[in-house]
Amino acid sequence: AYSGAAVGILCSVLLTPLAILLAPFIMNIQNLEGEILTIAIGYFRIRAIFLIPQGLAAYILAVLRCYGHTKYTFYAGVINNLLNLMLSILAVNLTGATPTGAANMMALGCGAATVISLAYVIFIFKKKGISFARPDNFGAFLSYVKRILHIGIPSAISSMSFTLSQIVTTSFIAIIGGYALTAKVIFTQILSYAYLFSYSA
Length: 201
Hints:
Blueprint (H helix, E strand, L loop, with lengths): L1 H27 L5 H16 L1 H16 L4 H23 L5 H29 L10 H39 L1 H23 L1
Helix pairs in contact: 1-2, 1-3, 1-6, 2-5, 3-5, 4-5, 4-7, 6-7
């Protein structure tokens, strides 16, 4: 578990600056234009800052599922989404900010919800008495890392394929207009709940 957490954190640390740097390119290839493009770049960059707590929470939840504690995936998702919803409502209705400012505040709220969800996951992890056993030496650590990557890379390719498909479909939908793009975002959010229920089963 210790080796997996280390690999996850390292990957998140490497991906964070890369995501921030490539944000304009990623948004441009999805045919976003004008104010929507500006908002999307800012939102994406802020969300990228929270990749580490998001990745760590996902990893701990995966460990909990391995121990048979699948329901906590659902609980963590509910906490994350409810907090995200409440903070988003505050950002849109109570701040009086511009659309760009409101979007940035929503991104920060989403990040804050992720951190709180991570705190809950860590609490459950400790409560269940699960610990991260450290490898005896660096050679053992590398051996564990190789095993993790042997299993994790095919799974990561599957996730990357899904992400790339979302980028491609978004690029087509963005051509239609803002309303179609909004509908696609709503559908994606509903889809995330379906995944949430499936992981907690």
